[in-house]
């Protein structure tokens, strides 16, 4: 079944109560942004995550979980492309350390995206050896760079960055006063993104 509410709806408990009454096998929330706070609060209030498997794309986003502190619900599955605490590698540790020294708090995915974008731009200009726009674009296509989550590629066929995605579940841990993503499963970009052949077909190519 499906349940819909208005964007910005302040009280979602009645909706979730009705969903729980239908005894679903699992619940997928297609929400995000500012609505995430109300959704997670309602999940906590109704105990939904204790009764049914739940997945929300950005449920494990640090920017979503930190403001809720210990009031966020445990047991909600979510996906993100960056966590400051995962992967626990020298590259990510160095990025987090430098960011915390500069700004006094750990980086979230926007900081990671900005850092990665700057490196793509710098490396593409180095490779192009010119400020010419077309040469810059050509240099970006297929370019691979090292990042806090490992080596990533700017795919030539559609100019999309091939990133891993981290699927985990919200959990309280003693290290922090907010929930984090735990039991993380890493999905490679190649495994979850449409292939170049699929992209070409969708665009009407042969």
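-> sequence recovered:
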């Amino acid at each position: 079944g499906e349940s819909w509410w208005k964007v910005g709806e302040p009280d979602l408990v009645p909706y979730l109560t009705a969903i729980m009454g239908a005894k679903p096998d699992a619940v997928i929330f297609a929400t995000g942004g500012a609505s995430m706070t109300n959704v997670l609060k309602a999940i906590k209030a109704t105990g939904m995550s204790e009764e049914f498997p739940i997945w929300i794309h950005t449920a494990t986003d640090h920017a979503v979980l930190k403001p809720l502190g210990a009031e966020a619900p445990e047991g909600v599955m979510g996906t993100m492309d960056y966590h400051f605490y995962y992967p626990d590698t020298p590259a990510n540790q160095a990025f987090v350390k430098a960011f915390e020294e500069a700004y006094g708090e750990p980086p979230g995915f926007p900081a990671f995206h900005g850092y990665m974008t700057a490196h793509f731009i710098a490396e593409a200009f180095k490779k192009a050896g010119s400020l010419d726009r077309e040469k810059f674009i050509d240099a970006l296509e297929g370019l691979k760079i090292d990042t806090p989550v490992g080596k990533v590629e700017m795919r030539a066929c559609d100019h999309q960055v091939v990133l891993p995605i981290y699927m985990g579940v919200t959990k309280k841990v003693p290290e922090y006063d907010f929930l984090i993503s735990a039991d993380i499963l890493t999905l490679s970009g190649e495994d979850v993104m449409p292939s170049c052949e699929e992209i070409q077909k969708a665009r009407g190519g042969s």
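The first strand starts at residue 27 and ends at 29.
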